[in-house]
Amino acid sequence: MITIHCLAYSRAIRLVWLMEDLQQPYHLVSYERTDSFRAPESLAKVHPLGKSPVIVEGDLMLAESATCLRYLSGRFGKGKHEPEAGTAEHLRHEELLDYVESSFAAAAMNLLLPKLRGGEPEEAAFDAMRKHYAYVESNLSDHDLLFGVEATLADIQFSYLLANLDAMGLLDDSPQLAAYWHRLQEQPGYQAAVKQAGPMAPDF
């Protein structure tokens, strides 16, 4: 059985969402954040970097969100959460899945971290994020989600950062992205994951 090590308000809730969607059993090990909103030392006993998420299955341990999602999808999903392999849409999906925690996350954290510390982001950070918002919006096109009405791995990957941006009021000027985040919250897998592991973002 898959074990998911899940820190509160963390990226790990993405994996719970996927496993709930796939209707696969899993063992959830939950960790509370410290008073300084950091991971507890107990997570470092699971993975040397003290990361979350971490999944364990037998001798296998994985810790990066996109890798974990791909593994779980390949192990249990039979392509349900991604466009058909070998198509242009599949390549676009793979690009977006990696984009979330590379380019998009870097820009988002330049807004989120100053807010977390009680300050305000620099205007340059807002300017950079507007470009990313426009890029994500261009990929939504006429779909409810990125590739239709059901969540793909890329949609699930976007959810955590959108949750935190929204919680800090950073989607207020981006109605299309705010609507996308609202539609993600309507997905049954998301709702099941929140019941099991709690929300992706606290009430700041």
Brief rundown of the structure:
This protein has 7 helices and 4 strands, in the order βαβββαααααα. The chain has helices at about 15-20, 65-75, 90-115, 125-140, 155-165, 175-185, 190-195; strands spanning about 1-5, 25-30, 55, 60.
Distance between the termini: 35 Å
What is the strand content?
Answer: 5-15%
CA-based gyration radius: 17 Å
Q: How many beta-strand elements?
A: 4
Overall mean pLDDT: 95
Helix content: 40-55%
Work out the helix count: 7
Question: What is the helix/strand order?
Answer: EHEEEHHHHHH
List the helices and strands and how they pair.
Elements lengths: L1 E6 L5 H10 L3 E6 L22 E4 L2 E3 L2 H13 L10 H29 L6 H18 L12 H15 L7 H11 L2 H10 L7
Parallel strand pairs: 1-2
Antiparallel strand pairs: 1-3, 3-4
3D structure, described in words:
- With 204 residues, the protein is of the alpha+beta class.
- The protein is 52% helix and 9% strand.
- The protein contains seven helices and four strands.
- It has helices spanning 13-22, 65-77, 88-116, 123-140, 153-167, 175-185, 188-197; strands spanning 2-7, 26-31, 54-57, 60-62.
- It has a four-stranded mixed β-sheet with strand order 2-1-3-4.
- α1 (13-22) links the parallel β1 and β2 (26-31).
- The longest helix has 29 residues, at 88-116.
- The protein is globular.
Observed structural traits:
204 residues; alpha+beta; 4-stranded mixed beta sheet; 9% strand; globular
